[in-house]
Amino acid sequence: MFDSLSDKLGAIFDGLQKRGALKEADVTAALREVRVALLEADVALPVVKDLMGRVKARAVGAEVLRSVTPGQQVIKIVHDELKETLGSDGQGLNIHRAPPVPILMVGLQGSGKTTTSAKIAKRLTERDKQKVLMASLDTRRPAAMEQLKTLGEQNQIATLPIVEGQTAADIAKRALQAAKLQGFDVVILDTAGRMAIDEDLMAEVEQVRRIADPAETLLVADSLTGQDAVTTAKTFDERVGITGVVLTRMDGDGRGGAALSMRAVTGKPIKLVGVGEKADALEDFHPERIAGRILGMGDIVSLVEKAQETFEQEKAERLARKMQKGRFDLDDLSTQLQQMRKMGGMKSLMGMMPGMGKLQKQMDEAGFDDRMIRRQEAIISSMTPQERRAPDLMNASRKRRVAAGCGLTVQEVNRLLKMHKQMSGMMKRMGKASKRGGGMPNMAALMGMGGAAPGMGAKLPPGMGLGPGAMGPGGPGMPGLPGDGDGDGLPPLPPTGGAGSGRKPKRRKK
Amino acid sequence: MADDHPDRDPSEGETGEDKKKGGWFKRLRAGLGRSAANLGGGITGIFTKAKLDDDTLEELEDLLISADLGPAVAARVTEKLAKERYDKEVSPDEVRAVLAEQVAQILDGVAAPLDVERGHRPHVILMVGVNGTGKTTTIGKLASKFRAEGKSVMLAAGDTFRAAAVEQLAVWGERVGCPVVTTKLEGDAAGLAYDALVRAEAEGIDVLMIDTAGRLQNKAALMDELSKVIRVVTKKLGQAPHDTLLVLDATTGQNAVQQIDVFKDQAGVTGLVMTKLDGSARGGVLVAAAEKFDLPVHFVGVGEGVDDLQPFDPQAFAKALVDAV
């Protein structure tokens, strides 16, 4: 299977680094590989050519050849150029206009317009305290209007009442009228999916655009798009005049070449990215992070932000104090496990860490799975409060009781206890070493998977210092588990209940 | 240079294409018109003035890459061409013929009709794929096709996650006149599949099609959920699902290969359907997929109409892709 782009470039530059001094031919050969990697990452050909031209001009210069670390130099150049192509930092939505401010959503079929409409509405409502109305102009796909209506109901966003038999233009007028009369700040117009070459439908959306005069016309595009990204982005821009792009499914394992392509051919900013199926899975676009992720430099900024959002400040401070004193009991571990799950599970975290791409792969191969986190939580919640505070109490008979209580084996209970012991030992050392108490222990060592993790110096919230330690791959066929720390009780663990699913309604509310 | 291609002007190319309902080949060509114009035009541009030399071959490779064939397949096709024609004068027509031939050759083995008359009653078809590829629409089109053939059809609205996905399928059920088994939003997809099987068996239905929620192939939990649906179906009815179709979006780039790989591995995909070939996307990744996997391609979607789902014809596809005569 294809490696991810960061793996590819990583391998290329590993090779470069090992050889020390570079010849011009080496750089050229490496750049050829970069080119193939970018193409496999679905960056559109004209964009690749342009990019490679600029990279080569700089890479074969003295800058690289005389460098002590030529590999690093090449990475830096490619990174810079990627960043430059991706454009400037997250420009928010332009809603500074007399209300109601229209936002028009356009794109191909199945790119995610309706879901994105709801996500944007939710974001504007919650973050910007705007009163938002959504209207579906999709008169074609069966139940498209019901879809938007349902999403509105789920997220407490108003939607325009459905009137059968109206044209898209009629609905647009009605939406604007309703928004004006009812005092809405923003009105989001969700249009039907259309092919860029469908003359009739492109004319329709042009008409809607004239009627609505939107402050933002957002092209919603699938980040998994191939070479067609160029045609689609260009055509929509020329016909409708887009003001920005929203890239969906950035949580997939596509390598996001479409981001580069679309930005390059339209010059329009990528304003937002969709990163999941939940209504709040919408993030600002940060070119330097994406460029960094492409090059395997991790996405540490997103990680910290995510941690800050999830981690309750008070709990974090309490934990930090405890860690400084070298006290870290099973209750604390349980809290950490919960935080980790809230942040999207191990895999999502690992994906964002610098140099963790390989480790993530190893985890996959080892059958590591977020379900393990739930099992560990289950073990802890099967203990008495005393046992959680003083794990040394755990003798053979207590272990048997706990194992029976959570439906796991004594070995698994032992493994958890061992892991806790290692962690608390490490934290004791850390507490002595650092008075801040927020340092990051060596993740890879904690994971017991070998391999140092470079660039781990970034200061992270205390909750991040977590490794599942000596956990092995979990056995299949888990019996039922008792309730977890939230008290909402886990159902008998089906394969469906993985931590990353996000499809349980109760999870979505969190 | 790739940048000089006439097709870069999007106002061109499709103007002459009529949207009338013609033969399917004609419509596929109309749909593929843009990609073909691009590829064909590019090749013409190259070959009217140049011999087949290294530069020309590189340009040719680039053109194939632009059609989403992927760098590896593009390189192989170019290499083969180089072996046969290097340094010779080659006319544009010849190149297109060779290209079409090669593409068709790769695709030849994977063209296979979907046979639902293998003695199963009900014949169970499970539709899987990434979000937004067109699973529900494809089910609607297939249902209409089976109904036209006089078969009794039942649909199971197994996408219990996306808002109004159930309603969407229900509309299709009404259109083509077949029962739709549903459950509540957030309901259990595996349980629904089971209920549908019981009903289909009791009512002596010929074809049962089970819709599923779209899911990205890298979401382990969601893939597990799909495996569960399949386990339940298989447990209830021996060899079912008899067909598990992966719906691919033609606009998807090389990630489609990854999609096939994971869905094949975890959902036991038995065949492919490629949708949205009527847009500007070229679907060349199907060639890469054909090389890599031994999976039949049953249908291609070339429009939003009920009749726009057509059996996959490699010759026509290859010819339309490179605009050969």
From TrEMBL, chain A:
<dbReference type="InterPro" id="IPR004780">
    <property type="entry name" value="SRP"/>
</dbReference>
<keyword id="KW-0733">Signal recognition particle</keyword>
<dbReference type="InterPro" id="IPR003593">
    <property type="entry name" value="AAA+_ATPase"/>
</dbReference>
<keyword id="KW-0687">Ribonucleoprotein</keyword>
<dbReference type="Pfam" id="PF02881">
    <property type="entry name" value="SRP54_N"/>
</dbReference>
<dbReference type="InterPro" id="IPR000897">
    <property type="entry name" value="SRP54_GTPase_dom"/>
</dbReference>
<dbReference type="InterPro" id="IPR027417">
    <property type="entry name" value="P-loop_NTPase"/>
</dbReference>
<feature type="region of interest" description="Disordered">
    <location>
        <begin position="464"/>
        <end position="510"/>
    </location>
</feature>
<dbReference type="GO" id="GO:0006614">
    <property type="term" value="P:SRP-dependent cotranslational protein targeting to membrane"/>
</dbReference>
<comment type="function">
    <text>Involved in targeting and insertion of nascent membrane proteins into the cytoplasmic membrane. Binds to the hydrophobic signal sequence of the ribosome-nascent chain (RNC) as it emerges from the ribosomes. The SRP-RNC complex is then targeted to the cytoplasmic membrane where it interacts with the SRP receptor FtsY. Interaction with FtsY leads to the transfer of the RNC complex to the Sec translocase for insertion into the membrane, the hydrolysis of GTP by both Ffh and FtsY, and the dissociation of the SRP-FtsY complex into the individual components.</text>
</comment>
<dbReference type="GO" id="GO:0008312">
    <property type="term" value="F:7S RNA binding"/>
</dbReference>
<keyword id="KW-0694">RNA-binding</keyword>
<feature type="binding site">
    <location>
        <begin position="190"/>
        <end position="194"/>
    </location>
    <ligand>
        <name>GTP</name>
    </ligand>
</feature>
<dbReference type="InterPro" id="IPR013822">
    <property type="entry name" value="Signal_recog_particl_SRP54_hlx"/>
</dbReference>
<feature type="binding site">
    <location>
        <begin position="248"/>
        <end position="251"/>
    </location>
    <ligand>
        <name>GTP</name>
    </ligand>
</feature>
<dbReference type="GO" id="GO:0048500">
    <property type="term" value="C:signal recognition particle"/>
</dbReference>
<feature type="domain" description="SRP54-type proteins GTP-binding">
    <location>
        <begin position="269"/>
        <end position="282"/>
    </location>
</feature>
<dbReference type="GO" id="GO:0005886">
    <property type="term" value="C:plasma membrane"/>
</dbReference>
<dbReference type="InterPro" id="IPR004125">
    <property type="entry name" value="Signal_recog_particle_SRP54_M"/>
</dbReference>
<feature type="binding site">
    <location>
        <begin position="107"/>
        <end position="114"/>
    </location>
    <ligand>
        <name>GTP</name>
    </ligand>
</feature>
<dbReference type="GO" id="GO:0005525">
    <property type="term" value="F:GTP binding"/>
</dbReference>
<protein>
    <recommendedName>
        <fullName>Signal recognition particle protein</fullName>
        <ecNumber>3.6.5.4</ecNumber>
    </recommendedName>
</protein>
TrEMBL record, chain B:
<keyword id="KW-0675">Receptor</keyword>
<dbReference type="GO" id="GO:0005886">
    <property type="term" value="C:plasma membrane"/>
</dbReference>
<feature type="binding site">
    <location>
        <begin position="275"/>
        <end position="278"/>
    </location>
    <ligand>
        <name>GTP</name>
    </ligand>
</feature>
<feature type="region of interest" description="Disordered">
    <location>
        <begin position="1"/>
        <end position="22"/>
    </location>
</feature>
<dbReference type="InterPro" id="IPR027417">
    <property type="entry name" value="P-loop_NTPase"/>
</dbReference>
<dbReference type="Pfam" id="PF02881">
    <property type="entry name" value="SRP54_N"/>
</dbReference>
<feature type="compositionally biased region" description="Basic and acidic residues">
    <location>
        <begin position="1"/>
        <end position="21"/>
    </location>
</feature>
<dbReference type="GO" id="GO:0003924">
    <property type="term" value="F:GTPase activity"/>
</dbReference>
<dbReference type="Pfam" id="PF00448">
    <property type="entry name" value="SRP54"/>
</dbReference>
<keyword id="KW-1003">Cell membrane</keyword>
<keyword id="KW-0963">Cytoplasm</keyword>
<dbReference type="InterPro" id="IPR000897">
    <property type="entry name" value="SRP54_GTPase_dom"/>
</dbReference>
<dbReference type="GO" id="GO:0005525">
    <property type="term" value="F:GTP binding"/>
</dbReference>
<comment type="subunit">
    <text>Part of the signal recognition particle protein translocation system, which is composed of SRP and FtsY. SRP is a ribonucleoprotein composed of Ffh and a 4.5S RNA molecule.</text>
</comment>
<dbReference type="GO" id="GO:0006614">
    <property type="term" value="P:SRP-dependent cotranslational protein targeting to membrane"/>
</dbReference>
<dbReference type="GO" id="GO:0005737">
    <property type="term" value="C:cytoplasm"/>
</dbReference>
<comment type="function">
    <text>Involved in targeting and insertion of nascent membrane proteins into the cytoplasmic membrane. Acts as a receptor for the complex formed by the signal recognition particle (SRP) and the ribosome-nascent chain (RNC). Interaction with SRP-RNC leads to the transfer of the RNC complex to the Sec translocase for insertion into the membrane, the hydrolysis of GTP by both Ffh and FtsY, and the dissociation of the SRP-FtsY complex into the individual components.</text>
</comment>
<keyword id="KW-0342">GTP-binding</keyword>
<feature type="binding site">
    <location>
        <begin position="211"/>
        <end position="215"/>
    </location>
    <ligand>
        <name>GTP</name>
    </ligand>
</feature>
<dbReference type="InterPro" id="IPR003593">
    <property type="entry name" value="AAA+_ATPase"/>
</dbReference>
<protein>
    <recommendedName>
        <fullName>Signal recognition particle receptor FtsY</fullName>
        <ecNumber>3.6.5.4</ecNumber>
    </recommendedName>
</protein>
<comment type="similarity">
    <text>Belongs to the GTP-binding SRP family. FtsY subfamily.</text>
</comment>
